[in-house]
Amino acid sequence: LQKKFLRYVFNAGYGAPSKAFFRETGIIKIFDLYQYRLSVRFKLEPKNNISHIRRLANLKEKEASYHFREPETWLVPTPRINTGKQRLQYTLPSLLNTYKSANFNLFTCTHRELRCLYIDCVTK
Predict the structure, then answer these.
(1) DSSP secondary structure code for residue 81 in this structure
(2) More exposed terminus of the chain, fewer Cβ within 10 Å: N or C?
């Protein structure tokens, strides 16, 4: 629906690629919106001196048995069913591990840099 709307706004054809439209308008795709908002909330928690999301997600640091590779920092539980991947206990640790593997520091970045990560924009 988002793509359809953007194609209508830009008067593009049915099969026109929409990646450039998302970049130009600065709209985050609906599939990435949950991860973006979760990242923003998690980033603001230490500043506001609360830890609701951290407690709800039951975040635990992973103890590495081998130190020759860079291990994942957060312990991600193994979901037994597909709906387990939608839970906060799975989403937040896997998202933080993804940020670490991409050398992206959530706590030192600005909101603009975080938004650009999800819009896939080029820094100007």
Answers:
(1) S
(2) C
Tokens 């840099």 label which residue? 113
In total, the chain counts a number of residues equal to 124
**Nearest CA among 44, 45, 34 for reference residue 94:** 34
61 DSSP β-pair partners: 74
> Which phi and psi (to 5°) does residue 74 adopt?
-105, 140
pTM of the shown model: 0.78
Q: Mind listing the pLDDT tens digit for each residue in 31-83?
A: 888 999 999 999 988 788 888 888 888 888 887 777 666 777 888 888 888 88
SS3 state of residue 41? helix
For residues 40 and 67, the answer to whether their CB atoms sit within 8 Å is no
Q: How far is CA 124 from CA 3, 103, 108, 113, in A?
A: 24, 21, 19, 11
Alpha-helical runs (H) found in the chain: 2-9, 19-25, 30-48, 52-57, 88-101, 111-119
Identify the three-state secondary structure at position 49. Answer: coil
